Amino acid sequence: MTTPVFVALPIQRLHSNRRQRTFWGITLCVLFLLVIILSPWVMGDAGLSPVLPQRNQPPSLAHAFGTDWIGRDMLSRSLHGMSLSLRIGLLAATMSALIGTGLGLAAGTLGGWVDAVITWIIDVFFSLPHLVLLILIAFAVGGGTTGVIIAVAFTHWTSLARVIRAETLQVNSSDYVKLSHRFGRSPLWIASHHMVPHIIPQLLVGLILLFPHAILHEAALSFIGIGLSPHIPAIGIILAESMRHLSTGYWWLGVMPGVLLLLSVKAFDWLGENVRALLDPKTSQG
Amino acid sequence: MLTISNLSVTFTQYDQGLRRKQLTVITDLDLTVQPGEVVAVVGASGSGKSLLAHAILGILPDNAQVSGTMEFHGERLTPKRCKALRGKDIALIPQSIGYLDPLMTVGRQVQRVGQLNGLSAPAARRLRDRTFTRYDLPPTASRHYPFQLSGGMARRVLVSTAVMTQAHLLIADEPTPGLHPDVVTETLNHLRELAQEGRGVILITHDIEAALQVADRVAVFYAGTTVEIADVQDFAGGNLRHPYTQALWRSLPQNDFVPVPGNQPSPENLPRGCLYGDRCSWVTEACREARPPSQFIRQGWVRCIHAER
Amino acid sequence: MSILTFTIQKLLRLGLLLLAVAIFTFVLLSFSPIDPVRAYIGADMLQISPEQRQLIAERWGLDQPLILRFGDWLGQLLQGNLGTSMVYNQPVGEVIATRFWVSLQMLAIAWLLSGILGLGLGILAGALAGSWTDRIIRLYAYTLASSPTFWVALLLLITFSVSLKVTPICCAAPPGVLAADVTIWQHLHHLLLPSITLSIIGIANITLHTRQKLIDVLHSDYILFAHAQGESLWGVIRYHGFRNLILPALTLQFASLSELFGGSVLVEQVFAYPGLGEATVQAALRSDIPLLVGIVFFSALFVYSGNTLADLAYPIVDPRIRIGGSQS
Fold first, then answer.
1. Hey, are the CB atoms on A220 and C258 less than 8 Å from each other?
2. Minimum distance, in Å, between the CA of residue C258 and any CA atom of chain A
3. In chain C, what is the straight-line distance between the N-terminal and C-terminal CA atoms, in Å?
4. Mean pLDDT score of chain A
5. Which residue in A has a C-alpha nearest to residue C162's C-alpha?
6. What is the 3-state secondary structure (H, E, C) of C86-134?
7. Option in A128, A262, A285 nearest C300 (CB)
8. pLDDT (tens digit, 9 = 90+) per residue, B8-17?
9. Which chain B residues are closer than 8 Å to A20 by Cβ?
10. Beta strands B2-14 and B20-33: pairing type?
11. CB within 8 A of A200, min separation 6: which ones?
């Protein structure tokens, strides 16, 4: 009478696939990003010197990204630029995450006027277009590499601070924390035993998801010319240079470095999604 | 009219670290409903009773696997047939006002039921007005949004949605909790009336007293299965077959008022043998070996190998 | 809540916000290593003597304490005096007004396009969640979400202006044509690609949010009940999904004004479109502090207006606020 609609085995296999896929995804993304970041040290300066006879060559086997107007290999240049941009982005995003965590924790645990001030600062930040804020800060601190790092670091912490603040408040008002208070546990004990385990996953996912934004904004600032100096060719500057050669039809100068940037950003996105899926399968897109 | 045998519903879920979890929420469930009778399905909260309703209507979520057979008017209920029948031949009376669209007036929502049953808009509107009158709902109620209704009015609107259909089978899912006793009685009377019109009614509830007030037969639901299906008279008449049913009956205030000790087994790891085994005072080695089959004893169905004693 | 109290409340909050932005900007710029005199004089700095320099600083009140300077500056702002743009040699207010008028059409087209297309694609993806249609839409949206705005603009420029030659390569009008002589078609022709670029970028966010919201709505109890009543998937979306979707979508659409403004800075840079975004870049690159500060204020006002419009839209769409609010 019973009609078995499913057998256990295929589901078991499907399940291990998903878990494995997630782990593979994480490994692949990390590897890809590591290769890009480390590439300048592996390659050295090969391909960066002008080779005039090989000017303006479209992508080929020898030059996967083509060559530029003085015969430099665009793949080497893009990798150098991307590595630089990634390192700047990582640094700025990490600083941002630290600011966000610190302020979020402070707002959530201390409450009162500290909370009010931090919430108010967050509101002010959200009331300006992000790019305008970036330009303003980068300009005010004098532009350059420092300007970009500070601008990116000081404008990306708001969302994470909000999340951490909400999480802290939620944990703080939970029954087991109230109970710990009543048992006379010190705030530090509660913070390390109850807060940290809840906040670490949020922080990890938040940090990884910050990277793509930080890198995109670094590139955008460099592209409009307010960021790194033209002598340090970050990916944004390489793309800005390509603008001058657009009408000549050398499309690869703009397209190929952009593809690399897009892939790097996507790698961070995938990494974040996979880590999130592992930590909290319910909120992730299966 | 409706015959369910050996129905099982299992969910697949992912836990932290993407570990897969199998939740068996309904196990080997049997149930029959005849036209004109009210069958109460009684069980503790969280025992998967609502999912029974969703399984009959074919609206379980995608990660649910269903096995067993369901027959309606003598024909198998396939997903395709479910889709054709739901809202027309089988209607649901949901738990709460949360089952109505919060942003649409109740009048339009009830009218929409009529239109889904093939009525023209004016005809559906007339039928809605007649139904509202039948349930003493003021004409202004049509223009109200769900959040504006009182508890009693909300109940009557929900019953109205089912009455708008020609359904032969009505499933009322937990219609009574949190209501004023007068409203409970009123709601149960509405269900009785509907059965007297010749429809079959399944009353899903955790309130055994409410069930005994209105039902013809009571199916006792435990850990996702029906441990006993008894006539209402069996309760007061001391003709109960299953130890869980007896314990439930004793737990009522007017009887011994002793709560049933222990908890239901978690759907994540059900015992191999009788699902009630770990709480049962009659338990023997044989109970732990295999799930007891459904037996017909003293004019009722029971899943207990010791029921005859 | 009456319209009067609503307006007063909104204006009060706007005042507080602008004050906050003023303090923030002032503190930021006064601690910055940028020397305002040097920024003003620019390349001619070597040609002026330290005495002349001192004179300028005194004239500008740079020798005054910080708090006095702030009060002075705020007083000027309150009188509507935003100063003079050094790059354009015009009052800042005028520069912003003319530039914004040029940007406005582009912003409006992009805003409408991204809203309508994003909503449509999001509903399609959410309704068919898990299907191939959904996957393709999601891939498209996720890829766009991680694409650099200026690069998308660059790609479209390469494709349509350089290779296919169907759209102009830059600016808001053909070169050499006086502003008064530009026909409406030339105008639209130059507007087309920047607007589309800007909308393509906005679509991703709205699509993904709409999709997620629709999935949430489709998992709600009232949708389950609608299915139980025999409603089909598209019936459910038409009668219940859309209704419950439109409120968050509207909020998001108005909130996207902030992103849109940021995007316009980059898009105008690529297309050399002489709007407010391009002026922002010029102000920063050429140290035009009054103009930059003016644009910061204006963008805050712009974003605030968007949020206020969303607040106004709420009661129109949601009866719980419209009726519930007036009852309590």
1. no
2. 5
3. 10
4. 83
5. A247
6. CCCCEEHHHHHHHHHHHHHHHHHHHHHHHHHHHHHHHHHHHHCCCCHHH
7. A128
8. 998 887 776 6
9. none
10. antiparallel
11. none
What DSSP string runs through chain B?
Answer: -EEEEEEEEEEEEE-GGG-EEEEEEEEEEEEEE-TT-EEEEE--TTSSHHHHHHHHHT---TTEEEEEEEEETTEE--HHHHHHHBTTTEEEE-SSGGGS-TTS-HHHHHHHHHHHTT--HHHHHHHHHHHHHHTT--GGGGG--GGGS-HHHHHHHHHHHHHTS--SEEEEES--TT--HHHHHHHHHHHHHHHHTT-EEEEEES-HHHHHHH-SEEEEEETTEEEEEEEHHHHHTT---SHHHHHHHHTSTTTT-PPPPS-PPPTTS--SS-TTGGG-TT--HHHHHSPPPPEEETTEEE--TTTT-
Instruction: Note the CATH number of domain B2-89+167-302.
Output: 3.40.50.300
- Residue C86: other Cβ atoms inside 10 A: 19
In degrees, to the nearest 5, what angle opens at C-alpha C82 toward C-alphas C81 and C86?
125
**pLDDT number for residue A281:** 61
Tell me if C262 sits within 8 A of A131, measured CB to CB: yes
Which of B65, B6, B9, B5 lies closest to B270 in space, CA to CA?
A: B9
pLDDT top residue among C173 and C92: C92
- Tell me which of C49 and A261 has the higher pLDDT: A261
Query: If DSSP codes are grouped into helix, strand and coil, which group holds residue A73?
Result: strand
Percent of chain A with pLDDT strictly greater than 90: 28
Question: Is the CB of residue B82 less than 8 Å away from at least one CB of chain C?
Answer: no
Instruction: Check residue A263 and give its pLDDT.
Output: 93
The string of pLDDT tens digits covering residues B63-73 is: 888 999 999 99
Contact A226, C284 (CB under 8 A): yes
Contacts of B165 in chain C (CB under 8 A): 229
This model of the complex carries an ipTM of 0.89
Q: Strand, helix or coil at C173?
A: coil
- Find, among A257, A188, A220, the residue nearest to A92 by Cα: A220
Better pLDDT: C115 or A248 = C115
Going by pLDDT thresholds of 50, 70 and 90, the confidence category of residue A264 is very high
Domain ranges of chain C: 2-78, 93-317
Dihedral (C-alpha) C255, C260, C262, C266: value to the nearest 10 degrees?
170
CATH numeric code, A3-41+88-233+261-285: 1.10.3720
Number of alpha helices (DSSP H) and beta strands (DSSP E) in chain A: 11, 0
Q: Where are the beta strands (DSSP E) in C159-225?
A: none
The CATH code of the domain at C93-317 is 1.10.3720.10
Residue in A117, A127, A245, A248 to test binding to C, most C beta-carbons within 10 Å: A127
Q: Tell me the chain C residues in contact with residue A126 when contact means C-beta distances shorter than 8 Å.
A: 258
The answer to whether B285 contacts chain A (CB < 8 Å) is no
Which subunits count as partners of chain C given 3+ CB pairs below 8 Å? A, B
Whether the predicted pLDDT of A9 surpasses 50: no
The answer to whether residue B110 scores a pLDDT higher than 90 is yes
Domain ranges in chain A are: 3-41+88-233+261-285
User: Residue C229: pLDDT band by 50, 70, 90 thresholds?
Assistant: very high
pLDDT tens digits for A191-217? 777 777 778 887 888 888 889 889 999
- The strand pair at B295-297 and B300-302 is best described as antiparallel
SS3 letters across A184-248: CCCHHHHHHHHHHHHHHHHHHHHHHHHHHHHHHHHHHHHHHCCCCCCCCCCHHHHHHHHHHCHHH
State the chains in contact with A (3 or more Cβ–Cβ pairs under 8 Å). Answer: B, C
Q: What percent of chain B has pLDDT over 70?
A: 98
Distance between CA atoms of residues A41 and A84, nearest Å: 12
Closest CA of chain B from A5, distance in Å: 6
